[in-house]
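Here is the promised in-class demo. Please do not try to memorize the tokens; focus on the logic of going from shape to residues.
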């Protein structure tokens, strides 16, 4: 009798233990597993799909009890982490991870949309091609939408739904369906996140400059022209719209690579003369850019050249007096020596626009002061001399 009683009691105790303990153990292990997935995603060079599971809390039917336990608590396991640990995790998330995480709950939405996290992604990807002129266009667009906001609220909501259809979640063809989750609606405001999304989806055409426009057309080699750019995330290239030149229609170029782009270095319209502030300092060997246009109807482009010696100079650096002369020689060594485009002279003291309808018109000059600016031109140097 005593033996039977002990066996029965032991079995009852074990059954009670098995009913109560597995859920707590599973919940603890699952919480650690989710946090590790977020961190492991950034140790691997390839995005890991389980992050979506931790964000959306998609689990197998067998884990329904675990979901119920977390729902009853009302707090995401990530929010149980110390403030600094959570911030470190969010800092390591890529843009699509931040956007997905913002749909988990209100607390994470506000954190993940903070400019603090998105500023880093803007600088890493867009800083070299998106400059002050693009920012100005973006802010003007926001101001215009705010002015019309009261009468066009329905249209604003339509734009948000449109953004939700084109935002790339993983840059590998996967997309987020924002319409099924109100907490994951995309912002359309002055936040850095909103600006990043507008650039990434290609819906925002921004001003920039393109080296060797129109697929390296021979007439534009070693030049840089203003254009409006739109990003194509599927090919990681850009579309470029060039303003009409004279009677020519607007030109459209596709497949423009990152290496051919830069933000405008000066705030000068392509139709205005740039006021040169370096003329008195120019000496042989300096690298420069000079505005040039075919005729008065054309906008300016920037062309690369080098300051050369006067014909009267023997090129001996100990006796060179080119700096003291009012005449400055500009050499364009991408052209053959006999070409009419290979050399021109400007007036150091009274330089304005110089030229004619045959050779074109030379405008303002910029002196290149950094190795990065010079190397950008060297990378696109033509394989042979131009005529």
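The designed amino acids, position by position:
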């Amino acid at each position: 009798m005593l033996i039977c009683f002990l066996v029965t009691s032991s079995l009852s105790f074990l059954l009670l233990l098995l009913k109560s303990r597995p859920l707590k153990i599973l919940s603890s292990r699952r919480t650690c597993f989710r946090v590790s997935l977020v961190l492991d995603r950034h140790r691997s060079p390839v995005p890991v799909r389980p992050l979506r599971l931790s964000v959306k809390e998609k689990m197998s039917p067998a884990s329904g009890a675990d979901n119920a336990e977390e729902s009853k608590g009302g707090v995401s396991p990530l929010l149980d982490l110390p403030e600094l640990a959570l911030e470190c995790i969010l800092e390591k998330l890529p843009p699509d991870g931040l956007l997905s995480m913002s749909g988990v709950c209100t607390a994470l939405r506000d954190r993940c949309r903070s400019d603090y996290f998105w500023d880093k992604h803007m600088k890493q990807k867009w800083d070299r091609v998106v400059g002050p002129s693009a920012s100005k266009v973006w802010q003007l667009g926001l101001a215009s939408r705010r002015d019309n906001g009261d009468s066009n609220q329905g249209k604003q909501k339509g734009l948000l739904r449109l953004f939700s259809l084109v935002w790339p979640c993983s840059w590998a063809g996967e997309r987020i369906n924002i319409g099924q989750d109100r907490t994951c609606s995309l912002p359309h405001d002055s936040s850095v996140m909103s600006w990043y999304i507008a650039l990434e989806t290609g819906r925002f055409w921004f001003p920039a400059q393109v080296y060797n426009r129109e697929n390296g057309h021979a007439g534009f080699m070693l030049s840089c022209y203003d254009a409006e750019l739109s990003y194509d995330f599927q090919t990681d290239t850009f579309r470029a719209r060039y303003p009409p030149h004279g009677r020519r229609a607007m030109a459209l170029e596709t497949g423009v690579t990152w290496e051919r782009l830069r933000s405008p270095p000066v705030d000068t319209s392509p139709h205005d003369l740039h006021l040169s502030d370096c003329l008195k300092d120019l000496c042989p060997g300096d690298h420069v850019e000079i505005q040039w246009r075919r005729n008065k109807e054309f906008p300016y482009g920037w062309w690369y050249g080098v300051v050369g010696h006067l014909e009267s100079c023997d090129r001996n650096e100990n006796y060179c007096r080119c700096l003291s002369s009012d005449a400055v020689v500009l050499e364009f060594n991408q052209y053959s020596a006999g070409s009419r485009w290979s050399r021109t002279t400007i007036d150091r003291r009274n330089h304005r626009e110089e030229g004619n309808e045959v050779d074109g018109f030379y405008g303002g000059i910029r002196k290149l002061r950094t190795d990065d600016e010079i190397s950008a031109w060297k990378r696109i140097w033509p394989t042979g001399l131009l005529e």
